[in-house]
# Entry
Amino acid sequence: MSGTLYGIGIGPGDPELLTLKAVRLIAACPVLAWPAPLQGDGLARTIAAPHIPAGKTEIAIRLSFRPERDDTDDAYDCGAATIAGHLEQGRDVAVLCEGDPLFFGSFIYLMTRLSGRFPIQVVPGIASPMAAAAVALHPLSTLEDAVALIPATRPEAEIERLLQAAESAVIMKIGRHLPKVRRVLDRLGLTHKALVVERATQDAQRLIPLADAAEAPYFSLILVHA
Amino acid sequence: MSGTLYGIGIGPGDPELLTLKAVRLIAACPVLAWPAPLQGDGLARTIAAPHIPAGKTEIAIRLSFRPERDDTDDAYDCGAATIAGHLEQGRDVAVLCEGDPLFFGSFIYLMTRLSGRFPIQVVPGIASPMAAAAVALHPLSTLEDAVALIPATRPEAEIERLLQAAESAVIMKIGRHLPKVRRVLDRLGLTHKALVVERATQDAQRLIPLADAAEAPYFSLILVHA
# Structure
């Protein structure tokens, strides 16, 4: 009997925004894996820390975290192989995933590598658009609104087309793309309605009207409703 | 000192998908309010039931639940007035919200009516697109994918334009709009990739390839990745 691979959404940062199911499975699984930078624990391990009992086997999946990283990283091959070793021995493995595992989550790359060989279950988590909307008291959508979730890494014309197609938008992964995004929102007359939310629900959380934002970190997003 | 109004996301249906923060605040608030049909408890109250201690004051906000309901319903005025009475007396009020409070949530209509008069906090919840993706093991987005969240109530041409602008889409509130959505997906050659998810994480959950779906309830959605 092989173990089960769990992708566990741990939410945006506040350790109280884990679900009961996430907390139960983290406690129950003997092996935990988490994406991390080349050194240190990384955000996922830090968010989940209050809920991790002593005595777990832990696997750090060391990623270079290029903003537009691809899925060919050797770290995923290596992490998947280590995880597979535990699953083959019948040990359940919980992968800690910031936000939601299947929404821009690195869990997808592990799932792809291990799919078909082992049972897989995903526990959804609070995704960053909902976390940012909550701290900003910003309605994402009512009635017939369409919502576009847009990586700021996209070309300028494509961001514009998506913003024109939907009533509500969340532009993610801002970082060095702030000037480009600002140009598009300026052209559409939306800058005065746009809010930058940095690190929603984390200690370093900040909310800044786009008009006043000089820069924005990679882990920030812009909320705008036309 | 007035009380605080809490909008509490309680997730898609599985009572284990409440966050720790939601459970804590439901236990702490003396007054609970929840949207409900004209008779009975409704889904939000049912999902949260295992986490509701005895002795709460409860306010049912009775809605007619027309699929494209507007925000002029007298029930919101009446519910907001009752809630305001408790807040003025210094009692905190937790509004139970299926999914996430600010993503197609009726909490938005209460927040609009009470904003500026009382402190308001929102606890984000697991939204239905993430819940459906989890049970289907369906990656919503990687790298530079844009995701469109589209009410099926929209006109056919607008659904088509949104689907063409984004790599990934979740089409919500299907119900009687199934034939229209199927026509659009057929035209775009996406029907064979589309999955209908009904009542994700609830006991009555069903997953059906769109090609095999004869009908779909209002609380179903379609996942499709181009």
